[in-house]
Amino acid sequence: xxxxxxxxxxxxxxxxxxxxxxxxxxxxxxxxxxxxxxxxxxxxxxxxxxxxxxxxxxxxxxxxxxxxxxxxxxxxxxxxxxxxxxxxxxxxxxxxxxxxxxxxxxxxxxxxxxxxxxxxxxxxxxxxxxxxxxxxxxxxxxxxxxxxxxxxxxxxxxxxxxxxxxxxxxxxxxxxxxxxxxxxxxxxxxxxxxxxxxxxxxxxxxxxxxxxxxxxxxxxxxxxxxxxxxxxxxxxxxxxxxxxxxxxxxxxxxxxxxxxxxxxxxxxxxxxxxxxxxxxxxx
Length: 283
Hints:
- This protein has 283 residues and is mainly alpha-helical.
- The protein has helices at 50-54, 66-86, 93-100, 104-110, 114-136, 143-160, 162-171, 175-201, 210-229, 237-252, 256-264.
- The protein folds into two domains: 31-119, Homeodomain-like (Arc Repressor Mutant, subunit A), CATH 1.10.10.60; 121-273, Tetracycline Repressor, domain 2, CATH 1.10.357.10.
- It is built from eleven helices and no strands.
C-alpha cells in the first residue's frame, strides 16, 4: 500500500497456481494503461519501448496523440478480456487485434510482443490499485489505521477485478510472467512494513519484526481475496474487506485500546465494531 495518499510506485509478482494467490502481486503500481512511449530505431521495434520493458529496462517516454492513446488502450482492453477468458498461452496476437478492431501492424507499433502487452496490463492494474489505496489512506490517521485502510481498499479492488486476479493466479507459475508479476509484491511489502514500523514506534503495534508482520498483512489480503474469488468465501466484497481490516487490526494491535482507536478512525468503522470481537470470523 502507498506510504502516502496518491503515491505511485513500481510492479509486482505473484505466487503459485495452487499454493498462494497472485493477489499480493498486483498490489503495487506501474505505468498507467495509456502510457507514454519511446520509438526504437529498428523497423519493427515498438515505439513505446516494449523491448526494454520486457528486459527490465525503462522505456524512454514519448507523447502519444489522443488517437494513439485510444488505439493503444483498445488493444490493452481487448488483451485483458481475452487473457482473463482464455489464459495467456491460448491468446494469440491475431486474436487481440481482431477483438480490438485494429490492424496487426498497429499492434507492433505499440508493443513488441504479447509479453509486452501483459507487462503493461499488469502495470496498469497495479497503478489503479495504488490510486485506490492512496485515496483510502488518511495520512493524518494512526499508523495502524492506515494499515487497515489500505487493507480494506486492496480487498475491495481485488474483488471488483476478480477476473483479472484469477488470471494472475493461473499464470503465476509461468517463469516469463513471474518476472512481471513479482516485483510489485515486494514494493507492497516494503510500504506495509514502513506503516508497521511507524506503528511499533508509536506503541500501537506489537513490537515484533516489522517485515514479518508486513508479510502477514500482505498474506491476509492475498489469501482472503483468493478464497473470495474462488467461491470459498461467500460474502459481499465490502463485508469481506471490512472483516479483513478487523482481522489485521486485531493481529497487529499492541492492546485493545490501539485496536479500538484504529477501528474508530474512518467513517462508520467505529469502536462498536471491535467491541466483543476477540476472535474474528467470516460470515
